[in-house]
Each structure stands twice: as C-alpha cells, then as structure tokens.
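Holo model, glycine. Inputs:
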Amino acid sequence: MSARVLPVRGAAPYDVVVGHDLADRLPAVLGESVQRVAFLYDGTLGELAQPVVDSLSVRYDVLALGLPPGEAGKDVSVVADCWEALGAAGFTRSDAVVTFGGGATTDLGGFVAATWLRGVRVVHLPTTLLGMVDAAVGGKTGINTGAGKNLVGAFHEPAGVLCDLDLLRTLPRAELVAGLGEVVKCGFVADPAILDLVESGDPADLTADSPVLRELVERAITVKIDVVVDDLRETGGAQGHPGREVLNYGHTMGHAIERASGYAVRHGEAVAIGCVYVAEVARRAGSLDDAVAERHRTAFGRVGLPTTWSGATFEELHDAMRVDKKSRGSQLRFVVLDDLARPRILAGPSEDVLRAAYETMTGAQR
Ligand code: GLY
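Output:
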C-alpha cells in the first residue's frame, strides 16, 4: 500500500507521511540547503539506526549522537552535550537535525533543534507508536526538571515527520501497547471510530504490518493535526473547545503517576489510567454518564493497558498535579468529557470528587 501523506497546514506547513520503507524520502524533506545533519538517536537503537546513518552519509556530513533513552535522557546536561557537539562540528543555520527514537528522543532532539542558533530545521523519524501518534507531530519540544515533566521547552515545528511502520516491527510489545494509550485517548476526545476499531478486533492482531494498526495511526495523527492546526500554541479553542489542551486528556493525573513512579509507569500506560481517572471525576461531578465512564475501562483494558493504579497516596498525586503545566495558580484544571468527542475544561473540581475518583482509580471502591 502506498504511503499516506497527511498535511499540517499553518504558518510553516509540513507533511506527516505514514507508510512503509520511508527512509529514502529523507533528503527531499531535508531540502537542498542542508550540508550537515546532526542525527540524534536513541543510543539503544544503534543497529536500527545504522542503515539511516549510512544512507544520510552518502549526501551529508553526519554527526551521529546517541542519546540516553527514555525520560531520564531529557535532561539539561544531555542538551548541553549536544550543543557542545554541534558547536565543535560547526553547525550553521542551514544545517539540520534528524531525530530517530521514541517520544523522549523527539522531545529532546526537537529541543536541541529549537535552541541551536535559535532554531534549525528538524525532521522526526519516530520509532515508537507513541512517537508517531503524539510526540513527533505538532512542534512541542522539551526536557524535564526535578519539579516535573516537560517544564522547559519550546514550540518548534518540524520540517517533516516520517512514520515508517516498519520500525515498529522490533518495538517491544509493551511499548506498542503503551502507544495505544494515546490512540485510544484520541478516540474518546475526537474520533470514536477509533474506539469501534479497537473494540471490534483482536488486539493481538495490532502489529506493525496490520492494516488496522495503520488506520489507527492515521486516525490518531489526523486528530492531532486538526487540533494543532487550530491552536498550535495552546492558547485555547473556539466555542468552548479546549483547543490543543484537549490532547492532554488524562495527562494531569497521568503525568503525576509517571513522576510518582519514578517514570517506571510508561507514558501511555499512565495516560490510560489518567483517562479512566478523569472520566470518573467527570462522572462524579455529574457531567458524564456511567456508560461512557465505564467504556474508558473497557477500551483501554481491551488493548492491554492498565486502568487502575495504587502506587502513591492521594496527597502525593494531588501535589504532583499542582505543578502540572495546565494548572493555573492553585486551581487544578482537567480536560473532561460531557460525552464522546465533547471535551471541555473543568476548573477547580472539589477535593471530595478528586478523592473519590482516586479511590476508584486504586481499585478500592467503584
Ligand atoms: N502531547 C500533547 C501535545 O502535543 O499538545
């Protein structure tokens, strides 16, 4: 099947391409002016990355920098090492960064590209499902601090994104399943056909070569593109829609869980638990009916994601949620649903509601 091109319109338009065997498209996406390419890759993926480095080396001076994997790598010291390496290699404004890895690599590599000389071209080659459907699209880049996730960052849109489904063949199953957390989230906030697809098929069939997985990837990316085109900088949507903030459905609690677990809970797993939690908040606040709240448990559970978590106290998670970027002053804000694909912001829900939803999340009470 030929590659599908999903255009991202806006001030700096670019394409997200979904398909197989896409590495040959890289020079066309990089453009004519580029002489040097900084290839910032997840250092554990050397074997997978080597063919891409070899083919880039035919046309460009390639500086390949292996990055520490995962959230632990999204540290300012790693960014500083990259800046030093770019400086030593004489990187100019007409050179480019290519990232190769999961969401953490995209965030980190994108941040290096956003900050070097106040911004150079970057092309993302995500190697995980999570990277494809979320991190690589929409121009958010960032690193972590002791206080929380992605608290330092910049908006820096890529020149292109190549989602080569072949790269998912070697992705551990648990990582693929974690990526489905963001996909199912898109089903709840914008495209319920995603829910029908995951509920009607056999989850074991969702593999790199499956047409259903490909459709899920394309649908989730389309949800993300529609949102970022309308509200790139997350200033808010029209007619009561939360705008880009909608993509953070389930993330307020999700980020708190990731942090409280020392990032042992994968992002997509934490998002699944966080979506179940916030559906329960909405149900208890009286805006979401029982059936849609319950559907959160069944849809995320169906693809093998966790829907309960009891690794931290309510107080710990509540404190962690307060430093979430979505908070305003001391007031917690959540994206909630009134129904499928009907999101809105709920600001300052009562502590009773939050605590009761937490009890449900831990499995202590239904
Ligand atoms: N991952 C959420 C966003 O890109 O806005």
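Residues 134, 138, 140, 244, 247-248 surround glycine (CB under 6 Å). Residues 230-361 form a domain with the Dehydroquinate synthase-like, alpha domain fold (CATH 1.20.1090.10).
Archived with the compound record.
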